[in-house]
Design a protein that fits this description.
By secondary structure, the chain is α+β, with helices and mostly antiparallel strands. It contains 4 helices and 12 strands. The protein has helices at 2-41, 56-61, 119-126, 188-196, and strands at residues 48-52, 64-72, 76-80, 83-99, 106-118, 131-135, 143-152, 155-168, 172-177, 198-203, 209-217, 220-233. A hairpin with a 3-residue loop joins strand 8 (155-168) and strand 9 (172-177). It is elongated.
């Protein structure tokens, strides 16, 4: 009985040591991964990285992680039509992350995520001081309100239009007015649309991650992200 008891104690102690070592290794790996992602993607802030699954050490030995979550509340700056645009609330879930033998790069088999662009940041991306983008209000689900000024026959007019927001080509946020109140005046619709309709391509996100769909909310637009063979670092 004493032998069995001693054996059990040894097993429990070794198990506890293994778990402790495993969790310590996860903590170190998460911090190193966060720094690597920050530098490789040119981020201004350091993301929060969470490595899932147990045990971690056997995953590392296999050069493959089951699941990694990446979150950045402070936002990232992406390129949009040659101009920068702030994307806030970036959150991605990565599955089947492959790590190379030197641990300098990581690629996820598939990824999903979300990103948020505020109306203030979307307005800045329009690059026209006479145009503002805002929430269309209740009863206009998934729509935004775009207000712009245009000159018609020497007269400056201001129009607010209700616009649909969609994704084009997996990389572009498209804003297109559903209808322009022209009041029968020739040239008004064309002039207003030149101000209120626009496309903004979002680049600078991790390679392989694409825009899937977009939804307008009271605080901005929420973008759903999907991708395969998504490069995190290297």
């Amino acid at each position: 009985m004493r032998g069995i008891r001693a054996t059990l104690i040894v097993v429990i102690v070794l198990g506890a040591l293994f778990v402790g070592a495993d969790r310590a290794a996860v903590y170190i790996a998460e911090n190193q991964a966060a720094d690597k992602i920050r530098t490789s993607q040119g981020l201004s802030g350091t993301p929060e990285v969470s490595i899932k699954g147990f045990p971690f050490l056997t995953q590392i030995a296999d050069s493959r992680l089951d699941e990694v979550d990446v979150k950045l509340d402070g936002g990232i700056t992406a390129e949009s039509g040659g101009r920068s645009i702030r994307v806030s609330g970036f959150d991605a879930q990565l599955r089947g992350v492959r790590i190379n033998s030197s641990f300098t790069s990581a690629v996820a088999n598939r990824a999903t995520g979300t990103a948020h662009i505020s109306y203030e940041d979307l307005t800045k991306a329009v690059a026209d001081p006479g145009v503002t983008v805002g929430y269309a209000g209740q009863g206009q689900a998934g729509k935004v309100k775009v207000t712009g000024r245009a000159k018609i026959m020497g007269q400056e007019i201001e129009r607010s239009v209700i616009s649909s927001v969609t994704i084009a080509d997996g990389s572009t946020v498209r804003v297109h007015a559903d209808e322009v109140p022209a009041q029968g005046i020739p040239g008004v619709e064309e002039a207003v649309r030149k101000k209120t309709d626009f496309d903004r391509q979002i680049t600078g996100l991790p390679k392989g991650l694409k825009l899937d769909k977009v939804e307008a909310t009271p605080t901005g637009v929420d973008i759903t992200l999907t991708g395969s063979d998504v490069s995190l670092a290297g």
